[in-house]
Amino acid sequence: MLPPMGDNVVVSNMELERLLSMKGGKGEGSYVNNSQAQAMHAKSMLHLLKETLDRVELGDSREKPFVVVDLGCSCGSNTINVVDVMIKHMMKRYEGLGLEPPEFSAFFSDLPSNDFNTLFQLLPPMANYGVSMEECLAAKNHRSYFAAGVPGSFYRRLFPARSINVFHSAFSLHWLSQIPEAVTDKRSSAYNKGRVFIHGADETTANAYKKQFQSDLAGFLRSRSVEIKKGGSMFLVCLGRTSLDPTDQGGGGILFGTHFQDAWDDLVRENQFHHCHQLHLKKS
Description:
This protein is of the alpha/beta class. Helices cover 40% and strands 13% of the residues. The protein is built from 8 helices and 5 strands. The chain has a 5-stranded parallel sheet with strand order 3-2-1-4-5. The longest helix has 32 residues, at 252-283. The model is unreliable at 1-11 and 279-284 (pLDDT under 50).
């Protein structure tokens, strides 16, 4: 979930969309070098993904490309590996039915602030279209699909109507599109007292987040329902909790939430220091 801002920091929702992202680049703290846990979980669910792909209707390969999308792709190799699995599985399905495979296209989508440059640098080179499908499948260090990036929030429309065969999204839908206004309003009973996580928060605070999540998920499903082709499928992996209480983010949630809160407080204090220092210089 998107956390509420500190008492002294005001950021609009549109600015959030352009500011929030996993850490880009290829440095020590980058998402590229700190996404092994996501890779492990994604690998453990490949059999479920393939079951979903087996239910996708195969269209006329002579007219349109087969299009897959990863929503919330971030900037590491995890998204590339998943797309590769999807494309190769569908190619084998066409082969198994004795059908000529279509051309394949993959869209990598995330917020505009995502480091698409790093992602594209990780993409393997394009295989030589025109060779046999067997050669494409055997080209382990090449990709057999056209690739493109699509910046934007997946809580809105991103693609033309009836244009996508398969949507994939993992560990992304828990992020809200915006901060519930009530949790940042000191006059509201849902005010979250400047905290950036909701463990142990009041019921009214939890309901504000719940209402925002319901609104976001409805928008997500409405958008995908327009964009997906007839006979297409969607594979979603979402974070969950063992408790029915939405404010109970026990276990790792407490640990990470506390560290997140401490880090956020440090940033707010740092911002206040710089602001005061600038005022002092101007007065001097």
